[in-house]
Amino acid sequence: MTDAERVISQNQHPLEPPMELEYKIIQAQTPLFSDTARMHEILAQEAKAGWQLLEKEDNYRIKLQRNISHRDNDKNLDFDAYRSTVGVSSVVTYGVTAVVTIAIVSFILYFALWTSN
Prior knowledge:
Helix content: 40-55%
Low-confidence stretches: 3-9
Number of helices: 3
Shape: elongated
Radius of gyration: 23 Å
Distance between the termini: 84 Å
Order of helices and strands: HEHEEEH
CATH architecture of the largest domain: 2-Layer Sandwich
């Protein structure tokens, strides 16, 4: 079987030209995709750029695919068609974690020094 025959056999309709696909992974810092409604909201927005769900890896990552012909419409979108993260920024996540850690350590040190006197 030649490469052309293999591509045609993978398409549903052999008279249509073969699709050229591109893929991307969208990640979230929190388990954003465990909330089905929120995931469908993100997928609806991605569908405007032609992206379709290929696989939900876990509650933090989803894989999408689209035909490269949708690239022509990217300039008309109000978001980046190639974004790879959604939800809370990693800067916010790590910042909050750092502040909470400093507060807990300070609290422990304060009481350790206060009770030693």
